Amino acid sequence: MTMELLSANHASAVAATLAGRANRSARGFGSGVYPITPQTECIELLCNQEFEKGHVVRVESEHSAMAVCMGFALSGARTFTASSSNGLAYMNENVFAAGFYRLPIVMMAVNRALGPPWNIWVDHGDTLSLRDAGWVQLYCETNQEVADTTLAAYRLAEDRRVMLPVMVCQDAFILSHTMMMTDIPEQAAVDAFLPALDLPHRVSNRPRTVGGLDTPHETEAHRRQQEVAMGQVQPVYAEVQAEFLKHFGRKLADPVVSYRADDAEVLLVSMGTIAATVRTVVDEARAKGVRAGALRVRMFRPFPAEVLARAMAGKKRVGIIDRNLCPGLGGILWSEMRALAPAGCLVQDYMAGVGGGDVRPHHLKWILDDLCSRPEAGAPIFLEVG
Q1: N or C: which end of the chain has fewer CB within 10 A?
Q2: pLDDT for 194-209, tens place per residue?
Q3: What CATH number has the domain bearing residue 372?
Q4: Is residue 243 located within the same domain as residue 260?
């Protein structure tokens, strides 16, 4: 392995390149790419890579980028693309198609606020709007995690018990353009970690039907198969973690990352890079005698409901920090977690950093103070953190 100073955009491209080359003994690698801030640096670097088998196709839109990936995947190639915000929205139809076709495409999604009005800063609403598309969604905290998760995503997606596409999500600019020392494995280690892709339903000289018309009963059967596959993601992910540790010497983060939560009475729950600041606030609260803890939701799809319910068992108060908004409802993470809380637990939603404002320790201290002092849960609270 070598240590390199990389942005998360470049870390993702380097990992995708290693994964693509690892499939050279099979059907190779293919990618459809189109630029959008703040993921453009990722595909710029990818376009400059050389592959023994396969290539990167520059297309005219995000919709076409995913279409190219679907074509490569249906032929049995290992595939990758990247997008963000309105690019993901334009790609929407084919994002759903890739999930329904059960194609193990890996996409790096840089979380950015949807416009208009136009905003290029971090907001999780773009990928969360695709939560029903049949993709595994993994949210990263560091550049190293982006690189590691990109490699692991192929092992997970291509497992025959899963065969689902994976989004590797990272916060715009906080990760995408921030340089950090990142441990990059050698090609031989990636070759050993990633078996050659053998897509069971690839197009070949054996007759296949792709994109035909389903009857209602057939659609019901296909959706059930998709749900069964989602049910396999967490146990397969545990196996991927073990293999990742064996080949690369470090542990891949759990679907839910717990911090000082076992004996906590009060929990702060977050996704993405906010989690690092939450840990600092938890440590300061502990020093003052407040039994605080934290959870970072790394895997949003499939939703790790049982893990989260166990983590919240016995807690008195839970504050959920959403970097997104579902208009008319509130935060999306809160909306999915609140039913998992034990009886008598106060669960409050706080929307912080929506549209990319910095979420600093004093903002989170205010959240913790409010959570500890309020007599009952109320409507979702918008924090002004600009």
Answers
A1: C
A2: 999 999 999 988 888 8
A3: 3.40.50.920
A4: no
